[in-house]
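To assess whether the prediction recovers the assembly geometry, we first specified each molecular entity separately, as shown.
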Amino acid sequence: MRRTFVVGGRVVRQLLRNPRFLVLSVAAPLVIVYLLKIFFDTLPPTFDVARYAVPVAAFLVHFLAFLLCAIALVQERTAGTMERMFINGFRRTEIIAGYVLGFLGLATFQAVAGLTEAIWLFELDYDEETLAMLFVVVWLLAIASVMLGIFISTFARHEGQVFPFVPLIILPSVFLSGLLVDVDELPTWADWLGHAFPLFWANDVIQDVIESGWTFDDVQGSLAILVGYSIVLLLLASLTLREVE
Amino acid sequence: MNAIEISGLTKRYGRVEALGGVDLSVRRGEVFGLVGPNGAGKTTLIKALVGALRPSDGEVWVMGLNPLKDRAELRQKIGYMPQGPALYEDLSARGNVGFFGAAHRTPDLRKKVDEVMIFADLSERANDPVHTFSGGMKRRVSLACALVHRPEVIFLDEPTAAVDPQLRSRFWKTFRELAREGTTLFISTHLMDEAMLCDRIAILRQGRIIANDTPRAILEMGKTHLVVEREGAEEEEETIGGHPEDLAAALRPYGLHPGVTAVDVETDSLEAVVLSLIEREEVG
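The predicted structure of the complete assembly is given in tokenized form:
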């Protein structure tokens, strides 16, 4: 446990020492949400902005948290620091949990900033409970994205090998998770495939809570799956991260 | 008990055999050099010793512990300096050393980090990010990371590669100080002048040990070339064994004869001996 905090503390220190990385990872979703606002402004007033604004902000957090975490871990491998950590006695569960802790701060910041901007720019009017739930779901999605990044990083030998996973995992989730179209309109197999992406479950909660009159019972199933998704990915990453050649 | 015991260590990657039945033992407090050309298997051997690599066959014991089965206990006792810097470039020298030191149950870690910073002559730049350092300074930070928890055995994989002669000499002074305090050092190198500074060396070629002795004893496996000049006569050339007794025996017939005007003695360097051993292996 102590070593988990040591790794987490080191990841945070590295992030803080790299302001360019930090600013880009928070500024990029903010800029994209703003561009989305300009784009949505050109659409007819009947267009349901609320249906897309928060899910798109959630997707941006998902994408960046996945990519940044995966790249950071692959860099550990290419720089030789991952091997050095193992030889010095850090265990893989400690390294993974430390990374989750370290990136949790960044993911939280991204979730708060992205959501706040989307709600402010699109003038969305939600009660406190809805806002809290939206934050919780984006935050859980960010954690699942960090886990996904850790898991995918175990298959990449260098940073470049992370990028093929973007069209393989991240982009299909945009089309199949109900972000753009209702999943009921997709072929059955595509609908089922969509269920495999964490964005599907996050979007499910978001669509439920932006409708008025939601209760916790309506969303608890999807929230539980999102949490389960993170746990399964954590276990898979612990199995695939190799300590010994 | 020896610090390191290796018996029949073999590592295969598919059809490629990186190590082929290595047997070796290293005594406690010894500076042991693993000498060999690039690709000989030096890094593979060190990785097997520090538990970063699972052998295909054979056994390895470090301080009486198995690097894979007794991983937790062993890692407290060993230090490892890899060939590359393997440092966090965004962090300071102190940040790097403190991080790797915190992996171990190191009492008074802060004090030990300060001490190792002084030892590696990094105190003045301790809080600067590593990416602002020269290659030599990064090597010093890397060495400090390997030493901070006061390990009993230190594995150094080509520690002085791409290091200037001044820093190399300082590194070796440090290694000797550590050995005097009882630390065992296992150093891989392809530099023969460095090999001469070790208590014992093993020569590794294509994953096999072809010689294992003191540098002096290996040097004596070479040849000595004598050129004797006499007044009014042609130069006489003779090639004898590399042992000092061979030289004495060869010079005896010449005595202090006034006709002998010069004796040129050229002894094979360690590099020449190692090359001839390698050639002999290739032919044999």
